[in-house]
Amino acid sequence: MQIDRIGDLDxxxxxxxxxDFGRKEISLAEHxxxxxxxxxxxxxxxxxxxxxxxxxxxxxxxxxAVLIETLVDLGADVRWASCNIFSTQDHAxxxxxxxxxxxxxxxxxxxxxxxxxxxxxxxxxxxxxMLRWPNAxxxxxxxxxxLLDDGGDATxxxxxxxxxxxxxxxxxxxxxxxxxxxxxxVILDLLRASLSDDPQYWTTTSPSIIGVTEETTTxxxxxxxxxxxxxxxxxxxxxxxxxxxxxxxxxxxxRHSLVDGINRAVDVLIGGKVALVAGYGDxxxxxxxxxxxxxxxxxxxxxxxxxxxxxxxxxxxVATVESAVERADLIITTTGNKDIIGxxxxxxxxxxxxxxxxxxxxxxxxxxxxxxSGASRIEIKPQVxxxxxxxxxxxxxxxxxxxxxxxNATGHPSFVMSASFSNQVIAQIELFTKPDSWxxxxxxxxxxxxxxxxxxxxxxxxxxxxxxxxxxxxYIGVDVEGPFKPEHYRY
Amino acid sequence: MQIDRIGDLDxxxxxxxxxDFGRKEISLAEHxxxxxxxxxxxxxxxxxxxxxxxxxxxxxxxxxAVLIETLVDLGADVRWASCNIFSTQDHAxxxxxxxxxxxxxxxxxxxxxxxxxxxxxxxxxxxxxMLRWPNAxxxxxxxxxxLLDDGGDATxxxxxxxxxxxxxxxxxxxxxxxxxxxxxxVILDLLRASLSDDPQYWTTTSPSIIGVTEETTTxxxxxxxxxxxxxxxxxxxxxxxxxxxxxxxxxxxxRHSLVDGINRAVDVLIGGKVALVAGYGDxxxxxxxxxxxxxxxxxxxxxxxxxxxxxxxxxxxVATVESAVERADLIITTTGNKDIIGxxxxxxxxxxxxxxxxxxxxxxxxxxxxxxSGASRIEIKPQVxxxxxxxxxxxxxxxxxxxxxxxNATGHPSFVMSASFSNQVIAQIELFTKPDSWxxxxxxxxxxxxxxxxxxxxxxxxxxxxxxxxxxxxYIGVDVEGPFKPEHYRY
Amino acid sequence: MQIDRIGDLDxxxxxxxxxDFGRKEISLAEHxxxxxxxxxxxxxxxxxxxxxxxxxxxxxxxxxAVLIETLVDLGADVRWASCNIFSTQDHAxxxxxxxxxxxxxxxxxxxxxxxxxxxxxxxxxxxxxMLRWPNAxxxxxxxxxxLLDDGGDATxxxxxxxxxxxxxxxxxxxxxxxxxxxxxxVILDLLRASLSDDPQYWTTTSPSIIGVTEETTTxxxxxxxxxxxxxxxxxxxxxxxxxxxxxxxxxxxxRHSLVDGINRAVDVLIGGKVALVAGYGDxxxxxxxxxxxxxxxxxxxxxxxxxxxxxxxxxxxVATVESAVERADLIITTTGNKDIIGxxxxxxxxxxxxxxxxxxxxxxxxxxxxxxSGASRIEIKPQVxxxxxxxxxxxxxxxxxxxxxxxNATGHPSFVMSASFSNQVIAQIELFTKPDSWxxxxxxxxxxxxxxxxxxxxxxxxxxxxxxxxxxxxYIGVDVEGPFKPEHYRY
Amino acid sequence: MQIDRIGDLDxxxxxxxxxDFGRKEISLAEHxxxxxxxxxxxxxxxxxxxxxxxxxxxxxxxxxAVLIETLVDLGADVRWASCNIFSTQDHAxxxxxxxxxxxxxxxxxxxxxxxxxxxxxxxxxxxxxMLRWPNAxxxxxxxxxxLLDDGGDATxxxxxxxxxxxxxxxxxxxxxxxxxxxxxxVILDLLRASLSDDPQYWTTTSPSIIGVTEETTTxxxxxxxxxxxxxxxxxxxxxxxxxxxxxxxxxxxxRHSLVDGINRAVDVLIGGKVALVAGYGDxxxxxxxxxxxxxxxxxxxxxxxxxxxxxxxxxxxVATVESAVERADLIITTTGNKDIIGxxxxxxxxxxxxxxxxxxxxxxxxxxxxxxSGASRIEIKPQVxxxxxxxxxxxxxxxxxxxxxxxNATGHPSFVMSASFSNQVIAQIELFTKPDSWxxxxxxxxxxxxxxxxxxxxxxxxxxxxxxxxxxxxYIGVDVEGPFKPEHYRY
Lengths: 491, 491, 491, 491
Known about the structure:
The structure is a homotetramer.
Chain A: E1 4-6, E2 9-11, H1 19-31, H2 34-43, E3 53-57, H3 62-73, E4 77-81, H4 90-98, E5 112-113, H5 120-131, E6 146-149, H6 153-167, H7 181-197, H8 201-205, E7 211-214, H9 217-228, E8 236-238, H10 243-246, H11 249-265, E9 274-278, H12 282-292, E10 297-301, H13 305-313, E11 317-318, H14 321-324, E12 330-333, H15 343-348, E13 353-357, H16 367-372, E14 376-381, E15 384-388, E16 394-398, H17 404-407, H18 414-433, E17 442-444, H19 447-460, H20 470-475
Helix pairs in contact in A: 1-3, 1-4, 2-3, 2-18, 3-4, 3-18, 5-7, 6-7, 11-12, 18-19
């Protein structure tokens, strides 16, 4: 693949001519992202991220454009790739490359490597390019000194790169890794090429990394596993578990974008239908509310008895996928786990049942098994496939089992991303400006910063906050300015 | 404008090459339109509409394609135009022209005159073409013998045509008609040309019309006014007031398509926002539920105290547009009345307030006033305009004040349209097969047919109906097969 | 049974010493009944009901007390009985007897014949007493000249009385009437005694009756059947079908009082439970919303396909009692029909399933069959019985299958009754002041009066109504002051 | 006050003759408390609490009776008092005293000191009696060795007792304690008498206490404050923060019991009303859902911006009490803080506004200020007072500002209490059977026990739990049997 380059700017996007449309939508999004605007106002003079080289792996959407330009306003240099092959909005990517004051001839923006509909090799190529910086002023090879991650693919690539460079060899894809076959072999190929090209690239560049901020449940789980194994190469801030991230993005963002994705994909009346939602975590809760708000009858499949009890109390039926799959018109996976919907389930589904995933990874639905099953695929339109089984019944699969809200719609709306990204930016500042405060562990943001993010967004919505008196604050043992709850409070 | 013609087939659509995509979506829609499929099964041998020449004016969407092909299967000849300049789905129009067994070279479908984004002159040209049939076998001029209307534009054109032919002159646009200026002058121009071309066209062809079936509140109101004035030229069946139409399409269809339209247009988080919904009829009820289901706080403006009391009981605030407009992030009109949102209201709206209409006509929002107001228009994308007032605040207007669910999304979903169109088809059969049973009045369908439509759709959703015993039926004074309620029952 | 009498006032209530408590609750209720207060303000000088002798059969509650005293303020003489053996609130009955300015020694109120927990013979005795007025000034036997009915028992007694007096004999309970055995034999006994005591009582007094106003679906059905058979003895106004009655009392009143009744009866957590609601008319809609609002999962049983489709669209499962009864924790009947839940259903219910009726009559649940079934009854507390089947499982039956919101709680709240009773009072005025305007038919109130009732209650809740401009009113073809909708509009 | 005594059993309840009714309701409650039944089945042979002397301070309701008898079945000796002056259900108290196999002549139950409507001195006398055990076999003075607390009053009395015994004097009520005046002076009087009677009572008995289990937010806050100050006398398990307690009892229990309390108190239609809910923690969330489920429009007052943002996202208005109090028909406090509603607020309320508290303590509403304000009190019925201000407007105060769900209704329903009490029992077992495992700190139960409680209740509701495969469990890094979430997970 060939990098595009105009002047000093290297990048790879679908079509720079979409930049005008992208810029208009970015302008609208800014109004809906009060957290980004507040951080720009607070920090754009101090520029706390001056000197930061941030490599970002996160869906390259209009909202992410506002994040990127906020990081830039705070002083950072930035490179970007998407963290999903379908999630890039090409007009946003183009606008970010051109920049706020640039022109197609003289782009002044940020190097972006992302387009909608990448192949897996292209995806990992983009991730790789986003992590390779132009050489330093002294000519030395240079990587990022900060990572901003969504799902952990940037972190994964660096850790694997270091591991294999230390081993001196990239292994063949073993039998045990069969589950990862398709995607993982792409990574191995890429790292094999890297090892042959520069056997010390990742080991040379990774020590400069001050830390990573990660915003998904899935990515955070990976980080905790690395930390527990003593293999984490740099500190991490778990942005996902800020309340204003996990309980907003995951719940209210999904409430918005699940029906949006379904509607744009298939435009089927949701009212009166039976929807089977696998998982009743925050994503599942938002998904269920979304579907119920449209008049669907929701059945929840859940392994955690506490979440299952919540589902029952919220008025949903709780059943296993096994027992409910034949009754469902819509099946949505939200678990963050794998192998939730298998081909045998699909064989038992209603004719034209709609199947989609809104959990982070694409292994909740067994797409590989479906491809092998003898079912034939009819593409209705991009990201909407009808798979016909030999008995004639069909299943409509959205976004090939990847995040349907990104593949079939535009993902989370700006306001939700404003809260999530405020946590990202604050975490970047925390890590970068206090580089010596952290071990190679996974940290969460202090509650006071979480409340700060909330406060900005409450005010943007016109909510009036109650001010505690000194007396009241003392009575419940808090400061009048907060934080107002103990660490273990569950909201 | 030039008619396209391949072989004997005259038509005018955007792009015939979209027909394959259209056909795929029509196939999916058929599964979601059990009412159409049931009527095909019941009637395709009998062909009760054999001999019918149906001119249809109704949004040319994928669902309408299924309706058209159902009418054809029942024996009818059909010509079609859209009843809204933005509502045509070009792939559906193309597929209908090509037909189920046709090819681009040899289309075997139906003459369609419709494309997305017509100008007003183009719109009325299409309506006119749809009403002009190829000459009869004996060479005589020929119009439709049946009308299928949505909003009443086909009926309007015929009535005006006859009126002016009788007068022998088409009047100039008078002062009193100022409200209708833009659109009405287009109609007058068209009829003036018609009068000069064939001064007896409408009076010659209209007597063959057995009747019209009409499915909107607005169109039905026009019909009742014509009937009350003794000016109705042919019998009419008010399909709108079938319960399975007005209480389903208007309520559940809007619940589906309002958020869909907003999401596709601006993708703004609805949760936490304040939405002002003008009107709490069936459309307003569906709109409110749609917004509340996404977490908005809804305020209702309503003139009818009964509907207002319902809104209060359903948990909404009831306020006037005057008093609530400054608090709203979203303003949606659903009244079927005119002049609901004026420019003075827009001047007082929040920055980037979103303004859209989901009532039938485009006069709920004063778009003409806005154009004259000194506000400047920035097109974000088709059907999404940001209007900037001199003080800098902007208002985002969807679909130029026309039906936003059609302009910004795909309108009602198939399942809802299946119920509405089942009523249309049954009404066409009733009128056409019993031509002598009707005066020049407006009729409603008998409740038994309404219940038949409901039964088909309940069963399609897997609902089990309870069968009354003879004893129970007698006890409540009904037949065991229904109808189950008195005529005045309100559901 | 002995009538109580103090001075000229005859009555029969449980305990006059409860009057003070009753009066306090009546005062609170007056604030919640803005319709009653508005009618008092409007009419208490004109006294349009002066000369009316109103016999009322309607649950003798605190709210009914406000109705009775409104009728008195408008000039009427009134006698009262409850229309349900369990629904009397004894403190309200006592307060009405004592009157607003009376004392226990010198009561100045209204003759009431009602107490909580009447036997069936007592119930019909009360109804009979309420219909027998003190002799006229000239000593002649006298009955009411107006009836106010709820369920139609007053109307029934008069019609049966006249029928048997004409026949000269009261028949034995025949085989065919087996269904009515218990209650109907009580009526026959009472009329047999009446016939022997005064063979012309009903034929003498009934011709003075100007008309009846009736407020239940059940009572109205009886009236339409009588009218259809040409047997209706006097005109009737169907108050039930005022929108502000049937769509408010039946829906929002039930939403309030169903959970209230269940909670007071058994105090079982409704959240997480499965509730089977038989019937999805207005009562069923309110019941379902009530239960869903508490987190239950609701299954609807319904014979009418239109209502069934609404239930599906509202997100409920639709199934038959047969197929759902084993899954339900709560079973509520709302149909207005009979034989909905039989003993075989009860045999299949879960242990400690809760069974109650909120439809008008007590024949929805087969209580007689239960008594014969071999199940044994354990009274937990008044109106809550646990019936134990031979296999050990039990079913908890509320209010012996009679209206549970009245038997286990206090019935509809004041605000709802304010709307219903406003229609009753307006209908009484219409009938009484225009005695020559009516045939022996069933009439509905004009929409303008319905809207008037709504307007009073909207304003009481702080709702702001929109005022149509003259232009807007003309555009939709209505008067600026309403009525705003065509007669057939369904709200 | 005199202790009642029959045989060896000392107690003080309202009326032993209510025991039969109490026993019937306890039997019904057992079916609704699957957690208690499961623990009895699991542990009644092992009797892990044999040797435990448990003093319990917790609302003496039917549900608590099931808890007490579960503790007894697990081997414990138990004494009991209520933790609220209004919350005792006298029939439950009577039944517990009589015991499952006892008779009025020979009661074999548990010493209970509780009745509905205690005065404050009576309340603290009961608490004191519940903490004083019959002398040990060797004649030595004896207290409990385990505490089970709800709100922390038992713990408070012991800590204050020890403090003042160490100081040798009980202080006069100082100026600084003015807030606590009424209640606190009662405690001081009681401890002054205790000091004079036995100057070493509390210091002698308290060292035997192995620990306390506490289930309210308020009580837990006190414990954390004591622990932070190093003053906690014994270990504590914070049962409140088990998910199956705080997120179920506080949320779903309140959803049930708030409308129940309001309905039984005033029976006012909630639909269409404006409700101001102060606080949007778990209790506030449940309260809001409860009111919205009945058709109220809810406004939230909240100091914590995270909770405020949740309220907005859930569709509620967020405003201060100051700005919203004049619009509200219902005002409910849920904060766990003090001085939420002052007399100045009440002065500004609507006529007949309804004011109640559902937070733990009675200092959320300034009842003392109201008494001093010049407003006059009219008791409508027990726990419902109308306070009339000099300008004539009145405010209806429920349960004198104490927990309205307990004062006006029956508190949480059995099923919810089953979850809470399962945590209590498990915590009692954990503390008592591992006495050496704990420091004088506050502990939470391990998540596995929380999930165990959830599992029992999911199964009781018929929910089917999904079983993770070994592969899936490994993939997300958990054991197949759970726990399934990290400690910080918020549900």
